[in-house]
Amino acid sequence: MEEVQTRKPFFDRVMASTPGGNTLLGCLQCGTCGGSCPSGPDMDATPRKLFAMARANMEEDVLLSNAPWYCVSCYYCTVRCPQEIPITDLMYTFKRMAIESGHYNAESHADFSQSFCGYIEHYGRSFEFGLATRYHLTHHPLQMVRKTGLGFQMIQKGRLNTAPDRIHDMPQLTAILTEAKRIATEDEL
Amino acid sequence: MSQEHNAYGYYPGCSLKATAHAYGDSTERVAEVLGLTLNEVADWNCCGATEYMSLSAIPAYSLIARNLSLAAAQGHQEMISPCSACYLNLRKANDSMAKYPALNEKVNRALGAGGLHYDPNSLHIRHLLDMMVEDVGYETIAEHVTKPLSGLKVACYYGCLIVRPRTDGYNPEYPMHLDRLMQTLGAKVVDFPLKTHCCGGHMTQISEETAFELIRRLLHNAADYGADMIVTVCPMCQLNLDAYQPQVNAMFGTNYEIPILFFTQLMGLAFGIPAREVGMGAEITSAAPALGKIGHEEMEPARPKRRDKKSLPMPQP
Amino acid sequence: MMEDRIGVYVCHCGHNIAGTVDVEHVAEWAASLPGVAIARDYKFMCSSLGQELVEKDIQELGLTGVVVAACSPHMHEPTFRRACERAGLNRYLLEMANIREHASWVHQHDVESATEKAKSLISGAVRRVMELEPLEPFMVDINDATMVVGGGVAGINAALELANAGHPVYLVERDPSIGGHMAQFDKTFPTLDCSACILTPRMFDAGNHPNITLLSYSEVEQVDGYVGNFTVRVRQKARHVDTELCTGCGDCWEKCPAKVVDQEYEAGLGYRTAIYRPFPQAVPKYPVIDEESCIYYQKGTCKACEKFCPTGAIDFDQQDTEIVLNVGNIVLATGYDLFDPRRVPQYGYGRLANVFTSLEFERMLNAAGPTDGKVVLRDGITEPKSVAVVHCVGSRDENYNPYCSAVCCMAALKFGHLVKERTGADVTSFYIDIRTTAKNYEEFYHRLLKEEMEFIRGRVAEVTDAARMPGEEGKLIVQVEDTLIGKQRRIPVDMVILMAAMEPRNDATDVAHTFGIGCSEAGFFTEKHPKLDPVATMTDGVFIAGVCQGPKDIPDSVSQGAAAAARVLTLIGQGTIAIEPVRANIDEEHCSGCRICNNLCPYTAIEYLPDLEVSRVNPALCKGCGTCVAACPSQVITGQHFTFDSIMAQIEGVLYDTYNGNGYVSVEHEVPLATG
Ligand SMILES: Cc1cc2nc3c(=O)[nH]c(=O)nc-3n(C[C@H](O)[C@H](O)[C@H](O)COP(=O)(O)OP(=O)(O)OC[C@H]3O[C@@H](n4cnc5c(N)ncnc54)[C@H](O)[C@@H]3O)c2cc1C
Ligand code: SF4
Ligand code: SF4
Fold it and tell me: Which one of A76, B11, B145, C620 is separated from C536 by 20 to 30 angstroms, measured CA to CA?
């Protein structure tokens, strides 16, 4: 396809990478999303403000914001938004774009997602024990002490498996994910 | 409940095999009592929880779609998920593939690399709670109650993902079906305004300050309304509210001791299934004191509050 | 038969058509069509110069038919028909090809296809116009009586204007009293004059005017006929009170033991008895018995009212009565319903006691209302110290109603002022945009700013009683993003007022159907033209006024009521009106008398003549819908102006480039219908 120089390449990319993302054009800046967000108080910019910044094509500021990483996927914003904008999905888009461009803040814990997914790609199932140890050893070694207490109790109660579960047809899953990643680099949604 | 309608595809999800085995165990026992067959989808994989979507969309959808494809190929028409996060992901993949042809094409191309294919909407994905109240129904459930939970005051906690963003006709902010189910079991349901608020999700791993405050609010609100315990429909909610309760207490200087149980555990107890078999004791904040209350006391009949003569009428339903 | 000499006129409509359709090319091409004597394109065909062009050609070239390819016939068919007539050509020998709405506007990004479609439409019109026959409209008298439906402020004013001009009016109101929503209010913005003081004199006039017949507690069941001559069936519901005897003394409702919440007049905030008069100034003054809540009707005994009525006016056996009215015109002024905020569960209405709707609050403010005008919480005693006013509840929201409800911002300011005046409480408005566009409205906003009403820009996320922080216990907490600061805030208050949207009446589509008019997507009645004909509808003789046409305030509702009356008066002044001769016509010589058409006609316009053994169409009742034409097994019914030949010719014309190898096939030859 011919390369078209648009006025707001970042904004356009955000919309194109999210199913139903072009509803963002209708954002009223009403703040229902920012008001509804359980993590709102901890965000350096509310979802509403991120959308205003995206509309102003402020790529760096948007991707460096901690807001998407504080999104807890509660979908309150999405069901309340008067313009039916898939806000939670847009938060995922921002996270993906930040990881792709390496533009995220170290505080944002993108690597939590990465560790989690690493286990899935290895075993086909999640592995809390491995995740908790690995992630917390790198990030909050001190918290680890408290966590081990909890972890111990969890193991006792049979709630934490110390060895991962794994699916049978791992080669099939690997083939699917490899192909999916190839397709993902091809173009946008 | 019709005869052909009691067999379902079953997608337990990772948690029910580990952190929430109590949920898995109780679900299986309750299903047995109700004569339901839950056929576990063979070789299912993780749905990616709330994480995979942050990395890359097509692989995230493909990961989920592998399960849909397997379930459909194994002859299921309906697939039940007890975990709200799995339920949301499975639904989201199915619905988005149905709505966006470009996405559908790409995901199926990826599935093709593993020799699989999925036609959107060939599978109906439902949450376990929805199946219980809609297919089994309150009446049938009531018929199986042998030890009513009389005297137990419960706060019904739905969390987010079971009602949002897809609602299946349930109120996305103030659903009542779990409340009604608990009443059917004989429990007294307290009002719980935060019933669909967030448990903190993965924030317990990322920012304790954020997550613990969300957990504190829920515990506080349930305590405010005099609940003996909180009932959940999601492994993530149960884990956050239960396992982190001591740490929340430590952070805020509070002393909540509110047990968090799965709704299927309470169904099991009301059906007279021995406590061990429905995973009792797996909770970090012990439910034993609260359960000590369950006897055969008569429930006090709800009497409408006498309103002051001057008072204005409430909006009629 | 005379040789066809058709003129084709392709309009640019400025850029509207010419921007997408290659009009010059289309005109050039049209000139080459068989039967076309002249084809021209012109910037604005509807201008006087454009019309003169047509007139000149008719006279100089002796045109036998005219095709104007421009906008919708709804816009300018009458214009060009008049032009034809001025030049001596029968007005029904004109055909419009709509190449704006049907071509340029719907294919904005595709010049080639839009141009091809324009050609197709013109080709069809040319073929059709060659088959048309000169017709004469027939004239009917206009009945000078008018029916006004809905006795809110809009309907009352329409009725009074007409009655004062000396013409009979039937004012049909569904409720026991006229007055509408305005009768529920205490003060009206921006002047803060007392609603009852300005409305009740008008209600009284409407109820006592010699030219106005007030039919309250009545429903329109059926409407037949056409402009100038409507026949309307109205059902007057049984009041169970003989209005000849009743003096309105009130002994009955004083004694009635059945008390229920009054969902209508008190908006659910107060009580009434089973026999009731909605409010003291009600017009008419007579009570009604509500069968649903009356103990006698539900249980079979009571009749307390009957025992105490001094004039013996109570009549439990009274039945609904049917009245047939003959009127020339109809004005619909059915108003609005308030959006039910239970549909926005996060605002807690119905669950949290001290969340009120705007209409409940209007009743609370009203000196004659359930609290005697005192601002109190649901306990009926406690005065709030802080009040939140939430804008845009159910409006500006794709989940409910996308439109702006137009009056809520001003009503919110009114509430702010009155709450401060009566309680001194803090009042905070939560808004997305403050809309104060009419005369003296912005000034009122400035006044409230100075009266220290607080304004937080942000749509409220939720209202909750779940306290989280000190100072929140026992309060309602309004959670919102203050978008001007960019921070989430929680404002604890004692009382929350939800500014709910005005919505179309829940039966608006049924009512529209009864009167043969259209509804917008939202459900408001559709006007004939949004700018130039806002109170007329697509059905001649049916007009609309007030909020049933779209959200608006009282001044605009009153203006529309007067405007609708003026439009009716114009028609009455003309005395007669030309009716389109688009009617069905039975060829009696070939009618077999099978009577199939008799029952099919939705307007009962076909009568059977037993002595002749044929059916005949009554042209005054026929609407030209064509049902009988299609049904006649002997094919002897013709729809004038829409004959079989003219329709087939038009279809062939539209398909000129695909049908029968690009050539024309005349309908005179037997042609098989295309079978693929
Ligand atoms: C909370 C609130 C406060 C407001 N405050 C102000 C203010 O201060 N100032 C201002 O200018 N505007 C105000 N408005 C707007 C105002 O209410 C409207 O502009 C006005 O009432 C519209 O009058 P109407 O006659 O069109 O409709 P309505 O007042 O709704 O009257 C319609 C009438 O038609 C009757 N009816 C309905 N259907 C039928 C039927 N099928 N057959 C027979 N009868 C029927 C109804 O019973 C009713 O009597 C306010 C609105 C709200 C919601
Ligand atoms: S709620 Fe929707 S419309 Fe309002 S600011 Fe957020 S995204 Fe925009
Ligand atoms: S008969 Fe009905 S209306 Fe009359 S007093 Fe009894 S309840 Fe009231």
Answer: C620
